Amino acid sequence: MHRIIKIVASFALLANAVDFALAAEPALLKGKDAMGDWKLDKPGVRRLLTPQDLPPVDADHQAYSEVVPQPGGAMPQVPAGFAVEMVASGLNVPRVIRTAPNGDLFFAESGANQVRVLRVANGSSKPTKNEVFATGLSQPYGIAFYPLGPNPEWVYVANSDGVVRFPYRSGDLKARGKAENVIGHILWTHHWTRDIAFTADGKRLLLTVASGSNAALDMFPAPRVAGGLEGWNKNHPVGATWDTEERRANVLSYDPNGKDEKIFATGLRNCDGLAIRPETGKPWCVVQERDGLGNNGPFEYATEIKEGAFYGWPWYYIGDNEDPRHKDARPDLRGKVTIGDVLMQAHSSAIQITFYEGSSFPAGYKGSAFVALHGSWDRSPRTGYKVVRLLFDGNGHPTGEYEDFMTGFVVSDAQVWGRPVGIAVAHDGSLYVSEDGNGTIWRVSYKGK
To answer: Which of 5, 107, 163, 270 meets the CB 3.0–4.6 Å disulfide criterion with 183?
Structure first.
């Protein structure tokens, strides 16, 4: 009898060990399993989508979310060992956050047409300063400091219709001069968010300009130039759009004074977030793909942006998948579409990206990237409304997997209280996240297990 009890106990211990091992291993959802809804979201859950997982064209199912006040006791959920604290509230559509060389946190308060600056001591979540840096802007979004290095002389701000800059000295909490126009004549209709970043060598200013429509259905079928499409192709990069979409769905490139405009990359429906990867010095975008082709496609994506590359919009997506609304319109572009590095659930509304180079998170986080998913209106069941982490292998190559990092903003199938947008790494290695549903900013730090 005692022998039987010991055998049963041994099996129980073995089962517990197996359960513990399985619990310690992050869940990896692939293919259809990765296309679920918010109920599957949890810090540590991983997803992997490939081009082969794209479903057939279908219809989107609209599912507008009602933004409600933060419920009592509701908090963002982060992995074990991490802590999350509110930094600021009552803000008017806070969006992009950028860390100044001195450690101050600049953020675009897009709804108030201004830029604010927070000063927060290392290790704290309580700002000692919360000042309006500049007002009178036009839906400000992207922010960049120039020249690169510890002593920038300018703060650049991307408005919906162009880029301005303010004279700056390290530690300024107020702009020390009026806005100087750097880039103008950018069409602001439809997608209005414009992000900016300087290349690693500081020689070029990159500006994202999203499409003026969902699928370019109001664009003339062919360019109205001498020679038509053939004539257009001789003088423009592969995949460049024209008419109402000219200079749009692109990353544009300028010298630091806003001159010498060039098209850096084409076919990016909405590159809402732009960042330079520290390890390589290469620019990365997070891209919102088009609507109207189904709940689960096309996938959103994060990718290194290659100069001269074409990413498909509006004729193709995720490779040679032709948008049926442009059937047989551009066979010359087949085989020329660059596929994004990390594919994410359709309609997640990928909106900002930052690379983690801090030292306060566990070692495995170094070199990975965080992406804010704002959540979308045209997918049922609901997805997005979280911050995810992109994974890279030991050689620095993206694995294609992404992992839930900060969740808990969804209340129900119909209601949410938070929509993550801006994301930045502070000098103390903590992560700052803005959300524009209730107008709050959060700090995520690592306390240890």
So the answer is: 163
Distance CA 59, CA 63 (A): 13
Q: How many CB atoms lie within 10 A of CB 187?
A: 17
Alpha carbon of 92 to those of 140, 163, 173, 372: distances in Å?
12, 21, 19, 18
pTM of the model: 0.93
Helix (H, G, I), strand (E, B) or coil at 376: coil
**Closest listed residue to residue 100, CA positions, set 155, 139, 40, 22:** 155
Residue ranges with strand state E in 305-355: 316-317, 321-322, 342-344, 350-355
Which residue ranges make up each domain of the chain? 29-446
- Name which residue leads in pLDDT, 380 or 288: 288
Q: In a 3-state reduction of DSSP, which class is residue 183?
A: strand
Return d(Cα 69, Cα 58) in angstroms, integer.
34
Query: What is each CA distance from 292 to 56, 377, 379, 407, in whole angstroms?
Result: 12, 12, 10, 27
- Dump strand ranges (E) for 288-385: 300-304, 316-317, 321-322, 342-344, 350-355, 369-373
In this predicted structure, the answer to whether residue 23 has a pLDDT above a threshold of 60 is no
Give the H/E segment covering residue 48.
strand 46-48
What is the C-alpha separation between 38 and 31, in angstroms, rounded? 16
Judge contact between 345 and 384, C-beta under 8 A: yes
In angstroms, the CA 354 to CA 276 distance is: 8
Residue 12, pLDDT > 50, answer no
Contacts of 240 (CB under 8 A, 6+ apart): 232, 246, 250, 263, 266
Distance set, CA 152 to CA 130, 310, 320, 413, 418 (Å): 21, 33, 43, 46, 33
Pairing of strands 66-67, 46-48: unpaired
User: How many whole angstroms separate alpha carbon 292 and alpha carbon 439?
Assistant: 29
Give the architecture (CATH level 2) of 29-446: 6 Propeller (2.120)
Which strand ranges, in their side-by-side order, compose the sheet holding 431-435? 82-88, 440-446, 431-435, 420-425
Q: What is the pLDDT of residues 207-223, one digit of tens each?
A: 999 999 999 999 999 99
